[in-house]
Design a protein that fits this description.
Shape: globular
Radius of gyration: 23 Å
Order of helices and strands: EEEHEHHEHEEHEEHEHEEEHEHHHHH
Strand order of the largest sheet: 5-4-3-10-11
CATH superfamily of the largest domain: HUPs
Number of domains: 2
Strand content: 15-25%
Helix content: 40-55%
CATH topology of the largest domain: Rossmann fold
Number of helices: 13
Length: 400
């Protein structure tokens, strides 16, 4: 009998049995790119993992509505556009297009929505106005801040007290009542990206951008919010405060999932560090299957070092595996027994059901591959369809 899916929830800091709010569908959001550069391998790690989550949920029979935003309101975008001597809008369009190309090359196939947050400016202004009306926010000249002391559960996701968070303020501004208060609306330093509002011309804070997008598309409560660990505070903490204050409903999100970071020479791979490895360079050299395997061979909650030697080893092993499984291809039209396939993949499923443990699942898959190489007669079709299922779940082509 197949085990039940368990998901590690950052909010509770434990694994919980997965039960979506709607028994047959899953609503899922992952923080998307700020389009100021090409996708790097640290970004790719996040997107490949959550695509695999959505693939597995689809395979289990859920209707998965997986959406991701495009942050197109950010100072870094304006500065990058100015450096490139192009208009901000042209710059944004270019890098959205490049991101879409890289997502396709990575075989990210589960996204049902991928939209610019600037399309939701009116929703953001409406939410800010409501937070002011309900007393959760205050004006300071032409800016609006969320008052965290009015939200008792602030800090629950990062498992921190307000006093602890006050030692690590993320937005320095003179008009704030508390160092931890965060901006809902602020004056824009650039006319290139600014919008009219009841509080003056400006732009929305980072956190309300995601809150407006998700509530508009997934509703006031949904199942999974994913992203990298560094977004837990302040970004995801702020989203919870905004949404639950707006709606009065808790929890805003049932399962909070977070990935570790990809490092180079021990430092987080990031544009600010200047140590990025672009995803398209790795894809060009190793292909989508090897790139995905490299990113899935590590547990998603763990950080790990980018190492091209590992990529080379994975490519060698994967090429040999594909060749050894090629005799199964002629069995694709044979009758299939799902019970037999499930039995073949029982250990693989058990690992995936243990918080999407892809490294252990890939380890168990090696036994399946060895058995497939020795298979004969009617069992050849069973192994073909088993490896076809694995290909569907992982987004890695083992058999055509």
């Amino acid at each position: 009998m197949r085990s039940k899916l368990q998901v590690f929830n950052t909010l509770s800091m434990k694994k919980e049995e997965f039960e979506p709010l709607d028994k047959v569908s899953v609503r899922m959001f992952v923080c998307g790119p700020t389009v100021n550069d090409l996708m790097h391998m640290g970004n790719a790690r996040t997107y490949v993992f959550y695509d695999t989550v959505a693939r597995y949920l689809d395979y289990l029979g859920y209707r998965t509505n997986f959406i991701m935003n495009i942050t197109d309101i950010d100072e870094s975008i304006v500065l990058a556009a100015k450096r490139s001597r192009t208009s901000v809008e042209s710059f944004i369009r270019k890098y959205i297009s490049e991101y879409v190309k890289d997502l396709k090359s990575l075989k990210i196939s589960t996204l049902r929505g991928f939209e610019r947050v600037s399309k939701y400016i009116e929703e953001m202004k409406s939410q800010i106005a409501k937070l002011l009306e309900k007393g959760y926010a205050y004006r300071s000249n032409s800016e609006v801040y969320f008052e965290v002391s009015k939200f008792p559960n602030f800090g629950a996701l990062s498992h921190s007290t307000l006093d602890e968070l006050s030692l690590r303020p993320t937005e320095l501004a003179e008009g704030k009542r508390n160092p931890v208060d965060f901006a809902l609306w602020r004056q824009s330093p650039f006319e290139d990206i600014s919008f009219d509002s009841p509080w003056g011309r400006g732009w929305p804070g980072w956190h309300i951008q995601d809150t407006a997008y998700t509530i508009s598309n997934l509703g006031e409560q949904y199942d999974i919010h994913g992203g990298a660990k560094e977004l837990i505070y302040p970004h995801h903490e702020a989203e919870i405060a905004e949404a639950e204050s707006l709606t009065g409903k808790s929890p805003f999100v049932k399962y909070w999932m977070h990935c570790g970071i990809l490092t180079t020479e021990g430092k987080k791979m990031s544009k600010s560090e200047g140590n990025v490895v672009y995803a398209r360079d790795i894809l060009r050299k190793y292909g989508s299957d090897v790139t995905r395997l490299f990113l899935l061979y590590q547990h998603h909650r763990e950080s790990f070092e980018f190492d091209e030697r590992t990529l080379m080893n994975i490519k060698e092993e994967y090429t040999a595996t594909r060749k050894s499984l090629s005799p199964l291809a002629k069995e694709k039209s044979e009758p299939i027994s799902k019970a037999r396939v499930d039995n073949i993949l029982r250990d693989f499923y058990d690992c995936m059901n243990e918080d999407f443990n892809t490294p252990d699942a890939l380890d168990r898959l090696e036994n399946v591959i060895m058995d497939a190489q020795r298979a004969h007669g009617n069992s050849l079709a069973d192994y073909y369809h088993a490896m076809k299922a694995v290909s569907q779940i992982l987004g890695v082509t083992y058999v055509e």
